[in-house]
Please model this.
Amino acid sequence: MKNVVVLGSTGSIGTSTIKVAEDLPDRIRLLALAAGNNTELLLDQARKHRPEAVCINDPANAQELSDSLGTACEVFSGPEGLLKLATLPDADIVLIAIVGTAGLQPALAAIRAGKDIAIASKEILVMAGETVMNEARKQGVRVLAVDSEHSAIFQCLDGKPSSSVRKLWLTASGGPFRDKQAWPKEKFSEITVERALKHPSWVMGRKITIDSATLFNKGLEMIEARWLFDIEMARVGVVVHPQSVVHSMVEFVDGSLLAQLSTPDMCLPIQYALTYPDRAGNERVQTDFPKIGSLTFEVPDEDRFPALGLARRAGEVGGTLPAVLNAANEIAVEAFVNRKINFPQISELVQRTMEAHKVVSHPALPQILEADAWARKAAVG
Ligand code: MG
Model:
């Protein structure tokens, strides 16, 4: 039985995690749940799964939770509450699925308390990959990926060192604007928010759906992979694979490639992270190859999607630059969703902010957070 803390239990990854826990009641116990603002859903989850503790962002909502849940469940709030949950003595693994940078401090706190962590929030490794991985090595804890691509690579690597790898291949669906005939570069300024929010193969949160349309999502994943698997950016490649059945691949030094495949369902990488190193029986995911028919692959179009080049540069330069890319992109996506800028201006804004940044190499956490705050201001400016 694994005692699991879920930070971000009411979001897309969080609700899938609850499903996995319901599939595997003999293996997974939901020890604690944290949510941002969705008090109602958190309350439902807590009534059903009886966690030891819950956390809600706003202290005003904490009272409501306390009144409804009684004394069997401790109720926390705010960023301090997240730290409490991340370091609960009985926790075996902390799954972090909070949007934005709020997951960074709880991730480090969990590691320092000797907990394994499962990361769904890309920001953690993009901003502070070096710090997080160094700390995890020092504490002897595991950092498991919940992203489908990184879970695939982790499964294919199966403990092999980066010296046995020629290249890691992240697959990308290509997003809704993959087709160059239908969406030539000249038409990119006409892309509406509604159109960008329609993703061909995954149902996800709003920010990540826009990131999938710009390919910034894949760019962030390249940087994540660089840290998670201790490999330089030049050996992290991207291949477009519209069916999203091959979740990613490892090309080994002998030329052999291993891939991990299934119909797309986030429950699978979540389950693997929570049951690792075991594989637990679950009928949820079924893959019918004759029905899928064919799997296709293409070179990504870096001219229409500058995000990949920007992320590669951020990953190569390192230091505070990935944090700046991440923060500027968040601001740009928000501006796009609020119809203040058009679609191509998302990557233009990120590029401008990166160019204006004075990089600090091997930054400590305060310097990373400073760069993040700087980029958010600079991107608006
Ligand atoms: Mg992914």
Summary: Residues 147-149, 221 surround magnesium ion (CB under 6 Å). The chain has 16 helices and eleven strands. Residues 1 and 26 are 6 Å apart (CA to CA).
